[in-house]
Structure of DNA polymerase I:
Amino acid sequence: MADKQHLYLVDGSSYIFRAYHRLPPLTDPDGTPVGAVYGYTTMLWKLADDLDKADGPTHLAVVLDKSSQSFRNEIYDQYKANRPDPPEDLVPQFPLIRDATRAFSLPMIEEENVEADDMIASYAREAQARGWDVTIVSSDKDLMQLVGEKDGAKIDMLDTMKSARIYVDEVKDKFGVPPELVGDVLALMGDSVDNIPGIFGVGPKTASKLIDEHGSLTAALDAAEDMKKSKLKERLLEHRKDAELSRVLVTLREDCPLPIAIEDMKLDGIPGEPLAAFLEKHGFTSLLRRLDAGSGSPDRPNDLNPAKVETKGDSGTSEGNRQPLPEFPAVDRSAYETVQTMERLEHWIAKCRAARIIAVDTETSALDAMRADLVGISLATGANEACYIPLGHLNDGGGGSDMFSEKPEQVPLDDAVAALKPLLESDAVLKIGQNIKYDLNVLARYGIAVAPIDDTMILSFDLDAGRSEGGVGGHGMDELSERHLGHTPLSFKEVCGTGRKQIPFGEVPLDKATEYAAEDADVTWRLHQHLKPRLAIEHGARIYERVDRPLIPVVAQMERHGIKVDRARLAKLSEEFATETAKLEKTIHELAGKEFTVGSPKQLGEVLFDDLGHKGGKKGKSGQYSTDQSVLERLSGDGAEIADKVLEWRQLTKLKSTYTDALQQAINPDTGRVHTSYSLVGAQTGRLSSTDPNLQNIPIRTPIGRQIREAFVPENGNVLLAADYSQIELRLAAHMADVPELKEAFAEGEDIHARTAREMYGEADRDTRARAKTINFAILYGISRWGLAGRLKIEPDEAQELIDTYFKRFPGIQSYIHETLETVRERGYSETLFGRKTWFPRIGSKNQAERQGSERAAINAPIQGTSADIIKRAMARMMPALEDAGLEHVRMLLQVHDELVFELPEGDVEAASPIIERVMAEAALPAVELSVPLGIEIGTGASWDAAH
DNA sequence: CGGATCACG
DNA sequence: GACGTACGTGATCCGA
């Protein structure tokens, strides 16, 4: 007796949209979003695994929509016209859905001019006609029309997300009518997503009641004439044509030509290859293990370890349903191995490949990644599973630290690099680092391009920015280890000493070095296990995957490029500043009547206020006179010549010590360029910060300071190009607070401060424009009457009136501030348009100063942070966009919050400028559509100064 | 090592 | 009843 055939038809297109919204935004080791693909893969697995079970499939096919157009558009041109574009991180998953289907060796149906629903209907009827049972894997309400039995062959539906079978009773529960009348109900109620008109004002309730009463759509429409006068009657009569059109649109075509014969859809279970290749490519490791192990259904998926995915029920995406945190054995430093032979190194490389997720840490001879030499590398594959590979050690621990003992046995550096390179560059192995940008730059100098990567420091930042203070903003490894693991790692000081007694890492004895280095990798691996799963649960994946993680290699490359600085020019400036400073100092001493240290605010204060008798106040804590710029400017206004001279002296000494002298020091002897280091976790708002040297505060506001910018130059034959976002924060404020007047002004390309002046004062002249500008900035920073009064040199009462006028003219600003603060008080954090969180733990402080400080920062953070997100997105897209255009010689060198600086061949300027402008202007898209344009200003020249 | 000052967006 | 006023950074200097 032949078993009954059972055809499963998978509605792939509708499944992936649902999977996308139900599953966390996971990514594979390449950073490609694969959340929906993962859900789809596990679903196919489960279905294929049910082969030959009771009611399971004997035959199976996947049906997908080929395009958004179908024959229904010819009937009704507005059909599906209101469909929003799919989310940006779903788009790259569409082709992967097809890859997954092929990997399972399943037939795939995609036909032009009809929709997946029509193909499903056609196949279902064909199978039914042959006496086969059919299960439609979908929860689409349109398909419910097909459910039921005919000639002893039944069609049902399966909602895999709810693990629910839908048969006639379920359809009746939902629509109040049997399946064959569902089309009539749908025609009456319409569908806003598909833009099916239906009868205006008729919803599911009324529709099913009418059909149930009258037995069909036509009967219901005919009966309208005899109804007693009502809104409903009018509507039925008036929109009859709409309903009839809708009936045609919701009717499924059951007679489509069938491209694949149903007997060819026979299911063979779960294949080995090429499924294994697909699972491996996307890091679906637990499925891969299951495949290796034979079969078994993926009940407890653990893929993309450690971002745990739960495909059943609702857990996994909801805030309250946290996964238990992983627990590990206590750190055991004696478990680490010192790898000193090629044989052991090969062993560890194999172990890493099998582990697929490893932590990496490099030990170097210095802190500067551009100068440091590689001293060793540590790897971790699990808790207490870590090793240290010494490569440049001088001391094996046999002698004292002041006496070189014999050089220890080590794998030769070149051999080790050659052996490790394929592992560190392998797509199949995720490399985790704590501040991995550093390791990227060190290893890049040895010819290794590490990828794919994860970074525990940035994970921590994207989850917990603002939650704690301290060294690296609370995201340093020691702090993270304490906080998440309750473990104190060996400190660098304990290993290398401190101050004058500090030794380079290469002189640390191997046993000690192994304990320290391998522990760092071990701890990093453990931290990743803690932090990565939180990303999906706490909605941090968007910002991490889409903004910050892609930026790591980009910023690393900018740091390696560095920028050329004209040393001779700086030296000349230093000299000029020195002579001028000496002259000023002499004059100041004369004016003071005695010699003193001009650079000492304490001494200066005493000279100004005690000796010379100027009036001024003491500063709170230190009991010291304040002598800052505003005080000196006031004294100067009162005619004190010495104040002028001191201001001038300060400017010159500042420029000399901080810039002209320091920048010469910062020139890298190997590259002849200056390589700053950007911190991706430096600013709570998500901005980058720049150190060693800080290239984000090079003078520009005064002519004398600007001379320093003239020393930043391109290589021969090249120019520097500077591209700025103009007024980006004000534009974002106009968008986020929804201020029509400001949005309009930006749209028209108006002078925004002049427009503000007109709105506030009725006219814009030099004076009112300047005041309006101050007020505009005050808004971005969280306004107070005293602050504004101080800036505008007016009384607080007057300032308050201005603020009131501003809020009255732009009520959106006031409600933005109010709503932002409400949200922060409620949730504890603010959010940018791209979902970056900043926490404000002191927002509810009893201390007023503290609380108000938090409030001002909280008002500013979404604006400053959104601006940071936008330029980061532009940076991540910039080089691919330029390379696509064949511009391979353009180098992105610097970022200064709203400005990007490039170095490029003179001949490339014309081609590169529009691309740079477009990438920057469109950086918010498609994730966020701004209601204001983003204006870009571009300049080029033979120096950074000339490029402005 | 903290405070004061000042360079930038 | 007192608090102390614009957001975000980093480098340098002085002086305890």
